[in-house]
């Protein structure tokens, strides 16, 4: 075997190796594109079917990342009062919402005592209807027995 033939064989093997690597890279790229496309479609479907869940998940993830990142001294100085003000505002907003909700329910006559009275009245009505239905069924049964005798 001549040196020239040996070089040609090595060159051919090298070219085959490069071609094989190029084909494998192309296949890997196609697979990655398909997977990315599938993931994008799945994400879009999830967003369309459950946007609130995605929002809550994003908020939770953001809070977890924020909790994991250390605060700098400057952030601590700048944000020291903000947390207290947000907490105070949230407590005040919750109290106002509860008071407004109670006032609205009271205005509609939906107090705990009124609800209890309504439930008692409803239960008594159901018992009366069941008794009437039972009496009517018994009477119909008696009449049926009399007519077949």
Provide an overview of this structure.
Residues 1-47 are annotated as: Disordered. Helices cover 92% and strands 0% of the residues. The protein has two domains: 1-70; 82-149. The chain is flat and about 120 Å long. 0% of the residues are buried. The chain is mostly helical. α1 (3-49) crosses α2.
Q: In which range does the helix fraction lie?
A: over 70%
Q: Please identify the structural class as seen in this structure.
A: mainly alpha
The biggest beta sheet is recorded as: none
Give the overall pLDDT as a whole number.
Answer: 78
What is the straight-line distance between the termini?
121 Å
Number of helices: 4
Which percent range describes the beta-strand content?
Answer: under 5%
Query: Segments where pLDDT lies below 50 for 5+ residues?
Result: none
Could you give the topology of this structure?
Blueprint: H1 3-49, H2 51-68, H3 73-107, H4 112-148
Helix pairs in contact: 1-2
Region (Disordered): 1-47
Biased composition (Basic and acidic residues): 1-23
What is the structure about, briefly put?
Residues 1-23 have a biased composition (Basic and acidic residues). This protein is an all-alpha fold and 149 residues long.
């Amino acid at each position: 075997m001549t040196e020239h033939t040996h070089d040609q064989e090595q060159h051919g093997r090298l070219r085959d190796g490069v071609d094989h690597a190029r084909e494998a890279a192309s296949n890997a790229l196609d697979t990655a594109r398909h997977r990315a496309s599938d993931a994008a479609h799945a994400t879009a479907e999830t967003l369309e079917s459950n946007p609130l869940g995605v929002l809550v998940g994003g908020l939770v993830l953001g809070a977890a990342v924020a909790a994991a990142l250390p605060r700098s001294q400057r952030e601590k100085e700048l944000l020291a009062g903000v947390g207290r003000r947000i907490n105070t505002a949230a407590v005040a907003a919750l109290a106002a919402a509860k008071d407004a909700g109670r006032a609205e329910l009271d205005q509609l006559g939906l107090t705990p005592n009124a609800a209890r009275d309504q439930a008692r009245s409803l239960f008594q009505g159901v018992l009366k209807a069941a008794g009437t239905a039972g009496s009517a069924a018994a009477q119909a049964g008696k009449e049926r027995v009399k007519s077949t005798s």
